[in-house]
Amino acid sequence: MDKVVTSAAEAVTDIPDGATLSVGGFGLCGIPSVLIQALLEAGTTDLEVVSNNCGVDDWGLGLLLARKRIRRMVSSYVGENKEFARQYLAGELEVELTPQGTLAERMRAGGTGIAAFFTGTGVGTQVAEGGLPWKYDAAGNVVVSSPAKQTQVFETAEGPKEFVLERAIVADFGLVRAWKGDRHGNLVYRQSAGNFNNLAAMCGRVTVAEVEELVEPGEIDPAQVHTPGVFVHRVVALTPQQAADKRIEKRTVTEVGR
């Protein structure tokens, strides 16, 4: 039951080229930065990454992107990474843009064994009808576009409504960051740093968690656990320096007297 490994490098050593990763975080908040760095140093490439966004140019998943380690992204927001936009428009990166709530539910469904679900989000748009550009060639022509999805009309309290079928996401590996975790893999996230971490942990076949504070089994109140240890396979305890290294994406301050 002791899932603690000695280092981040050991925790990601068996992630192969071509793997699909689910990665927690929102912007730079709650990202598993130490595991991402270990993956970068391991040289792993040709990755498909499922994450709300792709970090920024010099931090988070942006580090893997800058070194052409990511082949495909499934995301809901990509606006803070200029290299991401460049690679996408140059035909170097495939991108499946997904509505944010739909992305969250696809990940949750993958973690709970639900193969697919119907949602009203995207009905009447290219999300349902297909044709969203997933990949360009170097000349700017669309070479891969999203397929049309199954739709169905259901009776609702407001009358008949059309819904679109979305398929669950299951990743080969999940990478997440927690505020606190025990040796059995039970995790607690702190405030907004929880974001996509619980979902990324759930939908990974093998989930690795870096934790800012490692405690012994029983020290976490079961009622406070956000991700049960059943979803977590490896735990990496961060050093105080690693735990404190949290970048701010956009620093906003108020001038004194205004």
UniProtKB/TrEMBL annotation:
<dbReference type="InterPro" id="IPR037171">
    <property type="entry name" value="NagB/RpiA_transferase-like"/>
</dbReference>
<dbReference type="InterPro" id="IPR004165">
    <property type="entry name" value="CoA_trans_fam_I"/>
</dbReference>
<dbReference type="InterPro" id="IPR012792">
    <property type="entry name" value="3-oxoacid_CoA-transf_A"/>
</dbReference>
<dbReference type="Pfam" id="PF01144">
    <property type="entry name" value="CoA_trans"/>
</dbReference>
<dbReference type="GO" id="GO:0016740">
    <property type="term" value="F:transferase activity"/>
</dbReference>
<protein>
    <submittedName>
        <fullName>Succinyl-CoA--3-ketoacid CoA transferase subunit A</fullName>
    </submittedName>
</protein>
<keyword id="KW-0808">Transferase</keyword>
